[in-house]
Amino acid sequence: MVKKLKSFWSQYNFIVIFLGIFLIYLAINGSQTTWTSVTNIFLHSAILGTIALGMGMIILTGDIDLSVGSSFVLAGGLTILFFNKVNSIFLALVMAVLLGAVFGLINGILVGKFRMPAFIVTLATMLIYRSISQYMMNELGQTRYSVDATLSKYQPLFQFGNGNFLTISYIALVFLAVALLLIYVTTSTKYGKRVYALGSNEKAALLAGVNVVWTRISVFVLCGACTGLATFLKIAKDTSFDPATSGKNYELYSIAAVVIGGISMTGGRGKILGIIFGTMSFTLIDKIITALGMNALLNDTVKGVILLLAVGLQMIQKKSKSE
């Protein structure tokens, strides 16, 4: 029995962490907790969670992407401008995903093909993407990228972003659908095994016939596509983007959600499933701070402490397995 509990803890500690935070939320919120407030956890986790899913794929290979917050806002600004021209929800969705994938491809080629450090490459593109976004806004003489409310597709777009099916928001359902797809990819396909192999030991992966360059490029493209999809979800929900603040710290929050979800920063270990719980844990922290009436400036302090605890937990588990 003890061995089974230890095995469950080592593989699914992210569920225990989430449940612990959720129980704290219930205790603090008390009678004010409703089914709507519970389902809103999914809604408020969906956009960051979609980005975190892509980030998780990169971290499984042992790399990192610091540019997701900036590519999120640049793709968002360009998609809004495009939507205002074509007045098509489907084409806007395609545009957002393609833009995100292209930004990810740039990172992937520099990291995978030219062997440049992912930290430096994505730090550079983080600065470039947001700078371009702010420059375009300045040239347009506006303060925000906003969907034209006079368009015939404005209301259907807004209704999708703020609608729900059986009390679960459409945005949350998209997030869960992407999560299920990536869970399948990482657990039941050869591609998923290559991703884990690359993160575990690159030299061994090469000897096993894994195309390391292509695999590394592909996870950056996949992360970019997830970021682009998250961009579209944000547009549908709020119909506007602020180039200075939208997506701010998303790169850090998405990495934190991945780590809290149990994926090792060194690569090769962890489950995509954990990212769902890691992201929701982050959302619950915000709600707990709000319910306690704490200063919002302490939000990141609490998240930082929890992140340190999650990393410490990973190190303890790694050490216990090696002994």
UniProtKB/TrEMBL annotation:
Pfam families for this protein: BPD_transp_2
TM spans (from-to): 12-29, 41-59, 66-83, 89-111, 118-137, 165-185, 206-230, 250-267
Identification of the protein by name: ABC transporter permease
Annotated InterPro entries: ABC_transp_permease (IPR001851)
Topological relation to the membrane, as annotated: Multi-pass membrane protein
Subcellular location: Cell membrane
Entry keyword set: Cell membrane, Membrane, Transmembrane, Transmembrane helix
